[in-house]
Inverse folding.
């Protein structure tokens, strides 16, 4: 883990050295990463749209014949939620319980508007997982405590990953908990000057296994390690992308 933290710190310094980044370069990178965030976050939850199909839908409004309407609506919802997350990250106002509920509402605003921002009153389970979530009657109090905690949370990676896990462990909503938790995590990462981190479909099993381990064993070490690995990889990808658009000579971006 120490080597991983050193690698992240080094890459973060390299990223900071490239700032300020030109608006044109920044917008181009953000668009690409925001589409990728939408595709990956939805894909690990079972959405059938490919990355290309997600991009075509978001950029040109092109739907895919034979794919469920809900998959299209989820993509539009998530992308617009990501844009709101970027606005939120640029502000200094604390993240609160209300913020989390509003983020969830935006994530399901077209696909499942009836549950948007509303705490579940029913048992929540993940198919095939032994994890048991808190009784629904406890959700309001658990979320009140979570809201107080996250309003004071720092923008360090470990804290952002902890915020992710804590929300998933409460599982307050009928659906969309993972998508909401990953975007809450990314608000904190963005405020800390890090790029947003995606969990890719090929990493789904490792991701879910570490979350399950954390819940069953009360040990977040594997989950924290996994997410720090994803951050390290993302920083590397982001640096490579920025170097490609860096102007020639001594200009800064």
């Amino acid at each position: 883990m120490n080597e991983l933290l050193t690698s992240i710190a080094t890459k973060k310094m390299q990223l900071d050295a490239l700032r300020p980044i030109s608006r044109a370069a920044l917008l181009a990178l953000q668009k690409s990463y925001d589409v990728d965030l939408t595709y990956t976050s939805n894909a690990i939850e079972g959405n059938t749209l490919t990355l290309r199909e997600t991009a075509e839908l978001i950029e040109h409004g092109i739907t895919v014949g034979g794919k469920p309407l809900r998959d299209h609506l989820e993509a539009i919802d998530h992308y617009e939620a990501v844009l709101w997350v970027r606005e939120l990250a640029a502000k200094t106002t604390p993240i609160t319980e209300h913020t989390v509920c509003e983020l969830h509402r935006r994530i399901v605003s077209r696909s499942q508007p009836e549950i948007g921002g509303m705490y579940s009153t029913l048992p929540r389970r993940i198919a095939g997982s032994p994890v048991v979530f808190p009784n629904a009657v406890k959700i309001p109090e658990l979320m009140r405590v979570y809201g107080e905690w996250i309003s004071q949370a720092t923008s360090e990676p470990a804290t952002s990953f902890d915020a992710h896990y804590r929300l998933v462990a409460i599982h307050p909503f009928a659906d969309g908990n993972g998508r909401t938790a990953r975007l809450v995590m990314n608000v904190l990462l963005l405020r800390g000057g890090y790029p947003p981190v995606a969990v890719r479909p090929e990493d789904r099993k490792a991701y879910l296994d570490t979350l399950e381990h954390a819940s069953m064993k009360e040990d977040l070490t594997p989950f924290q390690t996994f997410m720090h690995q994803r951050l390290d990889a993302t920083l590397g990808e982001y640096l490579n992308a920025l170097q490609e658009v860096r102007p020639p000579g001594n200009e800064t971006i």
About this structure: The domain at 2-245 is CATH 1.10.3290.10 (Fic-like fold). Confidence is low (pLDDT under 50) at residues 248-253.
